[in-house]
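Run log, item B.
One chain of 111 residues. Sequence copied directly from the ordering sheet:
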Amino acid sequence: MLSELCDGGVDVDVRIGRLDDASGSEVVGDSADEPVGGFYVKDTGSGIPPENREEVFDYNYTASDGTGFGLAIVQEIVKAHGWEITVTDGTTGGAQFEIRRTEGASTDDRQ
């Protein structure tokens, strides 16, 4: 699933990290005792233009020779677990996908 989020080629770095509950900002450090508001997957690729950020999750949307199924399937899996996914600019360029717990989703759901 994570490879579908960042498929920018061999010259692209991919980073995965935690988001905190309150602000959605990146968590620095490794404290397993603190609640996690979600996580991000970001890359150093060319990014996704703001006008395309909603439609990248549509079936058959592709910016290359792909099938257009990948991110649509990722979104379905995320929603099935009571989470949501959005895409923004990465802090160092590229795209950043943010996966967050929705209201009412259990903090003990670690699937």
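Observations after the first pass:
- The chain has two helices and four strands.
- The radius of gyration is 14 Å.
Flagged for discussion on Thursday.
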